[in-house]
């Protein structure tokens, strides 16, 4: 990965403006829903190939409504297709924006973490006797591993539990 040198700031006013814009987007789309993972899996998906299929089916249904059962709501199909077509460019724009924000957060977080690792390395190398021991120990907690129970103790606990 290239070393991205992001040197920027987001003022509180700009952050507030972005958050207000997001709130406005949510307010303008009050019909948005939140699907569960199971719901997302179970729904048929409309991709590029399906869009042409749906468009053709709607055209057939519109021109020949007599073969459809009375319970079929052609108006609702038309509304769904219109809403999908209206939302699709919004989705593409928001997806691109999400990817840019996500990539920037990842890169700037990586830069900050790499710099923090350098601080830790320098503090370890020159911290003895300078009063940095406590800070180095606290920083070192990030790399501490949890101790494992000895196998013999774990095995005896399992055996005791089985005997009960």
UniProtKB/TrEMBL annotation:
Domain of life: Bacteria
Protein name in the entry: Uncharacterized protein
Species, as recorded: Pegethrix bostrychoides GSE-TBD4-15B
């Amino acid at each position: 990965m290239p070393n991205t040198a992001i040197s920027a700031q987001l003022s509180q006013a700009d952050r507030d403006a972005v958050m207000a814009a997001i709130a406005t987007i949510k307010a303008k789309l009050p019909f948005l829903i939140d699907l569960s993972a199971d719901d997302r899996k179970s729904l048929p998906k409309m991709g590029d190939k399906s869009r042409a299929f749906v468009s053709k089916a709607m055209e057939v249904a519109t021109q020949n409504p007599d073969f459809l059962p009375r319970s079929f709501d052609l108006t609702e199909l038309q509304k769904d297709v219109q809403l999908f077509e209206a939302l699709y460019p919004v989705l593409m724009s928001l997806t691109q924006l999400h990817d840019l924000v996500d990539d920037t957060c990842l890169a700037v977080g990586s830069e900050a973490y790499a710099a923090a690792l350098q601080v830790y390395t320098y503090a370890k190398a020159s911290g003895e006797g300078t009063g940095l021991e406590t800070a180095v120990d606290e920083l070192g907690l990030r790399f501490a591993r949890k101790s494992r129970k000895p196998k013999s103790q774990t095995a005896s606990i399992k055996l005791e539990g089985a005997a009960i």
